[in-house]
Amino acid sequence: MNILITGCGRGIGYQTALALSAHKDVHVLALSRNKKNLERLQEDVIKQNKEAVFSPLLFDMEKDNFFGSG
User: Fold this and answer.
1) Considering the domain boundaries, does residue 49 fall inside one?
2) Strands, DSSP E only, in 1-70?
3) Which of 46, 50, 59, 65 is the most exposed place for a label (fewest CB within 10 A)?
4) Residue pair 56/30 in contact by the 8 Å Cβ criterion
5) Where does residue 11 rank: exposed (0-12), middle (13-18), buried (19+ CB within 10 A)?
6) Quick check: is 33 in a domain?
């Protein structure tokens, strides 16, 4: 199962990504605009589950656009 979580730099998003990445057969795609916090989250994920499938994605919902306009 793939799970996309926004706001993973801190707070509820961070804790949700950490909790879900502990589960087997879950791929967590974690979005945040804060690179340092994503790196910290990735370290925490690996500490709790070395086999986690975790993809940190640096992304700003206000500036980045999947469709190439804006």
Assistant:
1) yes
2) 2-5, 27-32, 53-58
3) 50
4) yes
5) exposed
6) yes
- Give me the pLDDT at residue 60, please: 81
Q: H or E segment at 44?
A: helix 35-48
pLDDT more than 70, % of the chain:
90
Q: Is the confidence at residue 65, as pLDDT, over 70?
A: no
In the three-class reduction of DSSP (H, G, I as helix; E, B as strand; rest coil), residue 41 is classed as helix
What range does the domain containing 9 cover?
2-58
* pLDDT band, residue 67 (cuts 50/70/90): low
Q: What is the count of structural domains for the chain?
A: 1
pTM: 0.84
CB 29 within 8 A of CB 5: yes
- Taking only Cα atoms into account, the Rg of the chain, rounded to an integer number of angstroms, comes to 12
Contact (Cβ atoms closer than 8 angstroms) between residue 28 and residue 17: yes
